[in-house]
Amino acid sequence: MAGPFSRLLSARPGLRLLALAGAGSLAAGFCSDRKLYELPVNDGGCIPREQSQTWPTGQLPGNCTRSRRLCPPSMVTGYPLPSAEYPDLRKHNNCMASHLTPAVYARLCDKTTPTGWTLDQCIQTGVDNPGHPFIKTVGMVAGDEETYEVFADLFDPVIQERHNGYDPRTMKHTTDLDASKIRSGYFDERYVLSSRVRTGRSIRGLSLPPACTRAERREVERVVVDALSGLEGDLAGRYYRLSEMTEAEQQQLIDDHFLFDKPVSPLLTAAGMARDWPDARGIWHNNEKSFLIWVNEEDHTRVISMEKGGNMKRVFERFCRGLKEVREDYVGELGGRT
């Protein structure tokens, strides 16, 4: 028949079929349990090219005949159907949007980690923040350690893109904290004002900052402060809880450029990083203010070694020694969970 037409058919309760047909094309939509599935088909019985990311083979499954070209969702086995919840990422510029195809979303959207963390929670910050045309951000966060396994189909390619081809399935990151291997590391202080080495560390068994509860965040603080209280010598120091600082203490830390502030970036606030601020957040530093630990900022801990001048070797040596002693205290406190 020339020109488009539409037909509404009633089959059995709970299933309605709406067909729209025009010259040379047919599209079918199935509404069941409030979910809409679309199977666009051209004259050859094939999925159009622009839908190939949803239907990897570009062809209808074998149990759908070309004469009918219509398949209820129950018949489409092995082919992930597009979800009505799939976000509109057409104008986004972040790593998540580059790799989250409708097929990947369909495979992962109903999965959760043992703590209940979902795919939508992972990607929400990237959905809410499309990004800048010339600045490509990550666009997603992990809620716990298991996130990287449960949602590996998305996290693995994002990690590879962000870290220059590093494949977490086939490659192993090498850590070398032997400061004696540094042969130089002295920079002209006419050009270098200060030197710093920094890393993030999290505690196994507790949710990461985007997902942690108040109780978990307070447990992170308790464990870290207890571990740091055992440091001695040039690493001995004091913990300052943000919620209990005096104005003088706060101003001094600001003047020293040590104090971190409440997150205001949309990327962080959309990821839940500012929840309950400043509860269970704080900063620990040694008496010389050359070894610092931030607690419950963007990671459970940020470990920092720094000093004025260009002696990077000494900064790295202190970093390695402090990280080793703090980790040993973590293990003692947690029974091996670090």
User: What's the shape?
Assistant: globular
CATH class of the largest domain: Alpha Beta
Counting DSSP E segments of at least 2 residues, the number of strands comes to 9
DSSP helix count? 9
Question: What is the architecture of the largest domain at the second tier of CATH?
Answer: 2-Layer Sandwich
Strand order of the largest sheet: 5-9-8-7-6
Arithmetic mean of pLDDT = 79
Sheet with the most strands, sense and barrel status: 5 strands, antiparallel
Strand residue percentage: 15-25%
Relative helix content: 25-40%
Name given to the CATH homologous superfamily of the largest domain: Glutamine synthetase/guanido kinase, catalytic domain
Round the Cα radius of gyration to an integer and report it. Answer: 27 Å
Number of domains: 2
Distance between the termini: 68 Å
Low-confidence stretches: 1-79, 332-338
What sequence of helices (H) and strands (E) makes up the elements?
A: EEEEHHHHHEHEHHEEEH
Structural class: alpha+beta
Topology:
Blueprint: E1 5-10, E2 16-22, E3 25-32, E4 35-42, H1 95-99, H2 102-108, H3 119-128, H4 147-150, H5 152-162, E5 194-201, H6 214-228, E6 237-241, H7 247-255, H8 266-269, E7 282-286, E8 291-295, E9 301-308, H9 312-334
Antiparallel strand pairs: 1-2, 2-3, 3-4, 5-9, 6-7, 7-8, 8-9
Helix pairs in contact: 6-9
What keyword list fits this structure?
338 residues; alpha+beta; Transferase Creatine Kinase, Chain A, domain 1; Creatine Kinase, Chain A, domain 2; 2 domains; 4-stranded antiparallel beta sheet; disordered N terminus; disordered C terminus; ATP-binding; ATP binding; ATP-guanido_PTrfase_N; ATP-guanido_PTrfase_cat
